[in-house]
Amino acid sequence: MSWQAYVDDHLMCEIEGNHLSAAAIIGHDGSIWAQSANFPQVKPEEINGIINDFNEPGSLAPTGLHLGGTKYMVIQGEAGAVIRGKKGPGGVTVKKTGMSIIIGIYDEPMTPGQCNMIVERLGDYLLDQGF
What we know:
The protein is α+β, with helices and mostly antiparallel strands. Helices cover about 30% and strands about 30% of the residues.
């Protein structure tokens, strides 16, 4: 399966009538493996900040998580594995795998829990597959 198929078929899937707003799979080096058509143009320093927070949990909390210039307030996650962010009625979930980070962005009516489930389920699968 191509990386694009993981984005299209798994991350952008429908769950209880809702979809993520945007999603991507990005290598630890910042290279974009696959993304949805409307995924924001991310800057290398934004990806570096996310990778750094996985290595030093809590480092993003003071400044927020930035994606494509949008700032998300960092909320609870799992140190070294999952970062969650909130902005108004939407937010973001970022899951780290051995070789990539999986990013899902959502807006209402999708709930944070639905976004977490989609992103983290794919992340756990890729971890099991050695990615």
